[in-house]
Specification:
By secondary structure, the chain is of the alpha/beta class. Helix content is 44%, strand content 16%. The protein has a 7-stranded parallel sheet with strand order 3-2-1-4-5-6-7, with helices on both faces.
Length: 250
């Protein structure tokens, strides 16, 4: 599966794992030696991702589950056993001017980005504590959890909430040996963001704002997640690893 096997013997669960960042993260964790549990609402996507990992010599199982259904997710955990690494990747966005945001849009974004992240983490961490061997929780946040942007008031609010949640949990769970961090990607070309970059004006403006002069790659984010899951990051908790090519440095 690859040369680096620092996560041998550990189980990593990735939500929203069917495509884009989630799939890339799952593949990278498997290459690092983890048994990967891929969770998504779309069975065909995670089945394909799990097959890709197994074909390359890794260990992966695909579990169809909507993380908004907490009872369903608890049942998934009952079948999986102890999770050593949780990656909260499931999320959504719906950019629009502040004055046009309806409660349904607000609820959709907060339900998946914040509520589901909170209670999925709670369910996994309770089992980590019971097992008594620590763990690592990594949530895929965003550069928009660090700054603000027009037409993204709800998304920014949700990702800032995730960043605050992460700091609080790091303080509370540190004595249990559980590390809690985020990765905060900037603009990465994925199926979710592809429609935005199809707009040449938006793409050009975005590139102008990134000092490194390119869009992020899924592999850039996946590598950061593997680091935070790895024993090499054993003294890293309560922080956000920003992967944005320098966008938020300005």
């Amino acid at each position: 599966m690859g040369q680096v096997t620092t996560l041998d013997g550990r189980t990593a669960l990735v939500t929203g794992a069917g495509r884009g960042l989630g799939r890339g993260i799952g593949v990278a964790l498997a290459r690092a030696g983890a048994k990967v549990v891929l969770v998504s609402r779309t069975a065909a996507e995670i089945d394909a991702a799990a097959s890709e990992i197994r074909d390359a010599g890794g260990s992966a199982v695909a579990v169809t589950c909507d993380v908004l259904d907490l009872a369903d997710f608890e049942a998934v955990l009952d079948g999986v056993g102890v999770v050593d690494v949780l990656v909260n990747n499931a999320g959504t966005n719906d950019p629009m001017p502040f004055g046009e945001v309806m409660p349904t849009v607000y609820d959709k974004i907060f339900d998946l980005n914040v509520r589901a992240t909170y209670f999925v983490t709670q369910a996994v961490v309770s089992r980590m504590i019971a097992a008594g061997r620590g763990g690592s929780v990594i949530t895929v946040s965003s550069q928009m959890g660090q700054v603000g942007a027009a037409n993204r008031s709800v998304y920014c609010a949700a990702k800032h909430a995730v960043e605050g949640m992460t700091k609080a949990l790091a303080v509370e769970l540190g004595p249990r040996g559980i590390r809690v961090n985020t990765v905060a990607p900037g603009y990465v070309e994925t199926p979710l963001t592809a429609p935005y970059f199809a707009d040449e004006e938006f793409r050009a403006d975005t590139m102008r704002r990134i000092p490194l002069g390119r869009l992020g790659l899924v592999a850039d984010v996946a590598a950061a997640v593997v680091y935070l899951a790895d024993p090499a990051a054993t003294f890293v908790t309560g922080t956000s690893l920003v992967i944005d090519g320098g966008y938020t440095a300005q």
